[in-house]
Design goal:
By secondary structure, the chain is of the alpha+beta class. The chain has helices spanning 43-49, 52-63, 114-126, 144-154, 158-171, 173-182, 192-205, 215-233, 239-261, 270-287, 292-305, 317-320, 323-331, and strands at residues 38-39, 67-73, 76-83, 86-88, 91-95, 98-102, 108-109, 130-131. It binds zinc ion. Residues 88, 90, 103, 105, 107, 113, 115-116 line the site of zinc ion.
Length: 333
């Protein structure tokens, strides 16, 4: 499909970012009900359409390495842009044949701000695919509660908001980790999070040592594992984290046998713990961009050591490609 879409400047008298042509014969905007189609972009025409002052400001942002966390979103791209006047999260995409932005500097629509232009140019360099029918972030239906909280946030001064956030971080370890990660203050060399998680997994693993444990201890240990792994995985991904998640999965696989044996008195289904642990493992394999062979190797080792079907290979089909078949066969033996 990508190859069939011609590119070039859409003939138009309107000066503006009208830079994609969405069909060989039609100059009308792509109909809304059409499935999103990747379009090629005439980068030179895009550059020419941007007012000089905006282009210069965008070049300064890019030159200072201000564009970070570029990622596809809603058929367009978004990034976090650090400028002299603050930090902004612009989104830019093609809506109705026009480059359209939604940036928290206040620019919304087809007047592009420097943050959005810097994001677009960085995305072009990175070869990011743009959809011909993107959805701006504000257009996606949010949960009513989410909208309600956003409304409340907008009524607070930056200082009130900052104090609320910092106080919440003091009470909630997961939130604190997410806050530090979003702010770019956690790096992959920092061992503190790993150390805490390792200690917590060892602690959980001891739930059944000795002869006086009860099934409720096993349930509590399972919830502790799931909580610790969630906090751990809010950090930037590392292979050491993946090793720890595997350790937690093995501890839980062992425990889940006790839960199944005592199913008539338990309050926790084994899946309540299994799912978050395996999801975290899958997610980390993806975030670390491991190749199928390495994932295959790790899963084969886990499947061999899990005796209660904690690892479901089908969950990994998207990451394994042709390797999927070899493991599922092996696991049946
Ligand atoms: Zn902006």
């Amino acid at each position: 499909m990508y190859g069939n879409v011609p590119y070039g400047r859409t003939p138009t008298a309107r000066p503006g970012p009208f830079l994609v042509r969405l069909g060989a014969t039609s100059r009308r905007p792509w109909p809304v009900e059409c499935p999103p189609v990747a379009v090629r972009i005439d980068v030179d025409a895009f550059r020419e359409s941007v007012p000089t002052t905006v282009a210069e400001a965008a070049a300064r942002l890019m030159g200072a390495g201000g564009v970070a966390e570029l990622e596809p979103a809603g058929g367009g791209v978004q990034a976090v842009v650090h400028g002299r006047d603050g930090v902004f999260q612009p989104w830019i995409g093609i809506v109705g044949g026009l480059f359209t932005t939604d940036c928290d500097c206040g620019t919304v629509g087809d007047d592009l701000c420097a943050h959005a232009v810097a994001t677009a140019l960085t995305a072009f360099d990175a070869g990011t695919v743009f959809s011909g029918a993107a959805t701006p972030p504000g257009a996606a239906p949010a949960e009513p509660e989410h909208a309600h909280y956003l409304h409340a946030v907008r009524r607070l001064s930056p200082r009130q908001l900052a104090n609320l956030v910092a106080e919440h971080a003091l009470r909630d370890r997961l939130f604190a980790t997410q806050l530090l990660a979003e702010a770019g203050l956690l790096d992959t060399t920092d061992q503190t999070g790993l150390h805490d998680a390792r200690a917590a997994i060892r602690d959980a693993a001891n739930a059944t040592t000795g002869s006086r444990w009860q099934i409720s201890d096993v349930e509590a240990a399972g919830h502790q594992l799931a909580t610790e792994i969630e906090i751990l995985c809010a950090r930037p991904a590392t292979t050491a984290m993946l090793d720890l998640v595997e350790e937690a999965i093995l501890v839980w696989d062992d425990f889940s046998g006790h839960l199944r044996d005592a199913y008539h008195i338990t309050r926790t289904e084994p899946e309540e713990i299994t799912e978050p642990l395996v999801d975290a493992h899958h997610d980390l394999c993806e975030r670390l961009d491991l190749d199928a062979e390495e994932i295959d190797h790790r899963l084969t080792r886990l499947v061999e050591r899990c005796h209660h079907d904690t690892i479901d290979i089908d969950t990994y089909t998207d990451l394994l490609g042709e390797h999927a078949r070899t493991i599922s066969h092996a696991s049946r033996w």
